[in-house]
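Section 5: illustrative case.
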């Protein structure tokens, strides 16, 4: 089958083997996942201030709050009851089940551990404009691209356990004052790998052509770009140099030096 590259040139590309297809996802993660972003590097080296964490927790909450909306959009596009049954678990993981708190509530506790109020996060006060654009881009992506691409975009979860394990270790080491807000990460150590295994198996099963495979890889790259863009916004607004745009959260002088 004749394929079209990103440069618009036609090429004949054979179907990748299952092993090569999966290896492509791992290569994308190693190159593009946000574990290498300078903001995360500073976090894991113990070089962020309380103000940096406040900005991160506040902006990341906006992303967390849209995850169930994103997952509901993916679920609604499927006509397969088995898929919907498996995927709706993600919504419960983040929204909670009415008895146990979900990921959103746990993230609000992390916001509070940084010294901010949960109301500030809930109201979206001080969110960077780039955060809003990046997060909405993700919701739009899963709503408008093919169902296969929407599911493939979730495969950043293949790499999250390693990052979360490192993050929890370094947060406890360098930022003990955050210890009361780490429950979110504890839950994701098991939830994310389970979700990733299901999504990867589904994508491998449903990517039946080389075009499907290429679009699946491109979807993961797009998701990595969205995560990276959110950290870019934080880094250039609060770290180097610190110039939060009008209306954005501004840490106190004391928090910037703490």
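Designed sequence:
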């Amino acid at each position: 089958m004749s394929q079209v590259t990103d440069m618009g040139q036609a090429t004949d590309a054979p179907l990748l083997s299952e092993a090569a297809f999966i290896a492509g996802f791992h290569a994308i993660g190693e190159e593009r996942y946000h574990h290498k972003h300078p903001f995360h590097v500073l976090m894991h080296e113990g070089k962020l201030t309380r103000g940096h964490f406040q900005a991160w927790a506040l902006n990341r909450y906006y992303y967390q709050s849209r995850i169930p909306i994103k997952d509901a959009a993916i679920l609604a596009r499927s006509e397969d009851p088995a898929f919907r049954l498996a995927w709706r678990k993600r919504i419960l993981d983040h929204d909670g089940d009415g008895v146990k708190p979900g990921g959103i509530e746990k993230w609000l506790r992390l916001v509070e551990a940084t010294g901010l109020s949960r109301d500030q996060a809930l109201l979206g006060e001080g969110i960077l404009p780039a955060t809003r654009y990046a997060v909405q881009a993700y919701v739009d992506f899963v709503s408008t691209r093919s169902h296969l691409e929407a599911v493939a975009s979730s495969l950043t979860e293949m790499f999250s356990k390693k990052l979360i394990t490192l993050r929890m270790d370094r947060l406890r080491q360098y930022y003990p004052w955050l210890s009361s807000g780490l429950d979110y990460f504890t839950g994701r150590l098991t939830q994310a790998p389970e979700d990733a295994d299901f999504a990867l198996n589904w994508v491998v099963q449903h990517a039946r052509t080389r075009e499907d495979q290429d679009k699946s890889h491109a979807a993961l790259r797009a998701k990595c770009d969205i995560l990276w863009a959110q950290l870019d916004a934080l880094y250039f607004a609060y770290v180097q140099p610190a110039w939060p745009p009008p209306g954005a959260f501004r840490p106190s002088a004391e928090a910037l030096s703490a």
